[in-house]
Amino acid sequence: MKGKRILSGISMVLGFILYFLWNEPQTAYAMHIMEGFLPVKWALFWWVVFLPFFLLGLRSLTRITKEKPETKLLLGLAGAFAFVLSALKIPSVTGSSSHPTGTGLGAVLFGPLVMSVLGTLVLLFQALLLAHGGLTTLGANAFSMAVVGPFVAYIVYRAITRSTGKQRLAIFVAAALADMATYLVTSLQLALAFPAASGGVAASFMKFAGIFAVTQVPLAISEGLLTVLVWNFLVAYNGRELAQLQSMKQGA
């Protein structure tokens, strides 16, 4: 118990230090897609697509907290990890930004549905408290970061661990590809809303994805490495909780 509290305290302190050092006041660039940037029909469309995953995630989260209440600290850590990383923004495409997402860790720990709830809460708090993103575009941002990213991470992690047994490699690739998948979806969302005059949606998608790739590829690699480091800490200090989560997922 003492070790878990120390680890949680260190994580929180480091998180706030990173946040204030890297995210000092500056011109406000939106987190993913900013408030009011999407046409109304597309904003509504992404809300409709996103909501079923969120509702299923609430059910999954409730089940986990009831069956394994001792994992609440890990839930908090997964949410804090996503909040801190996704707050480290780099200006990119007009109306959007590049940054790590931090959703791969939670997806591996609890599954993609739970991360759809945690990721949405992260986006909501950032929209309300940090002016990153917005409420009208929350459905689009949550679908890309809190739904697609975690599902990609979970599928990749399961595939690599089953085929190679190399857990750390699986964590790295899962976190990095979750990051990249998020921005591919964001590129598609922007392309659908703003098709190019010449070439339509396809040309617009290639343009947005190409611009994002300049910053997102190194960010994805860095996020993968950082996620492995955090995973190593969890294995060292929270091995019992990890084993319980693993047994729960196998029995589900």
Automatic annotation (TrEMBL):
Family designation: Belongs to the CbiM family.
Name of the gene encoding the protein in the UniProt record: cbiM_1
Function field: Part of the energy-coupling factor (ECF) transporter complex CbiMNOQ involved in cobalt import.
Keyword Cell membrane annotated: yes
Source taxonomy: Bacteria, Bacillati, Bacillota, Bacilli, Bacillales
Transmembrane segments: 5-22, 42-61, 73-90, 110-131, 138-157, 169-185, 219-239
PANTHER family from the UniProt entry: COBALT TRANSPORT PROTEIN CBIM (PTHR43627:SF1), PTHR43627
Entry keyword set: Cell membrane, Cobalamin biosynthesis, Cobalt, Cobalt transport, Ion transport, Membrane, Signal, Transmembrane, Transmembrane helix, Transport
Molecular-function GO term, any one: cobalt ion transmembrane transporter activity
UniProt-recorded name of the protein: Cobalt transport protein CbiM
UniProt record, GO biological process: cobalamin biosynthetic process
A UniProt-annotated Pfam family: CbiM
Compartment(s) where it occurs, according to its Swiss-Prot or TrEMBL record: Cell inner membrane; Cell membrane
Protein's pathway: Cofactor biosynthesis; adenosylcobalamin biosynthesis
Subunit comment: Forms an energy-coupling factor (ECF) transporter complex composed of an ATP-binding protein (A component, CbiO), a transmembrane protein (T component, CbiQ) and 2 possible substrate-capture proteins (S components, CbiM and CbiN) of unknown stoichimetry.
One Gene Ontology cellular component: ATP-binding cassette (ABC) transporter complex
Membrane topology summary: Multi-pass membrane protein
Keyword hit for Magnesium: no
Organism (species): Aneurinibacillus danicus
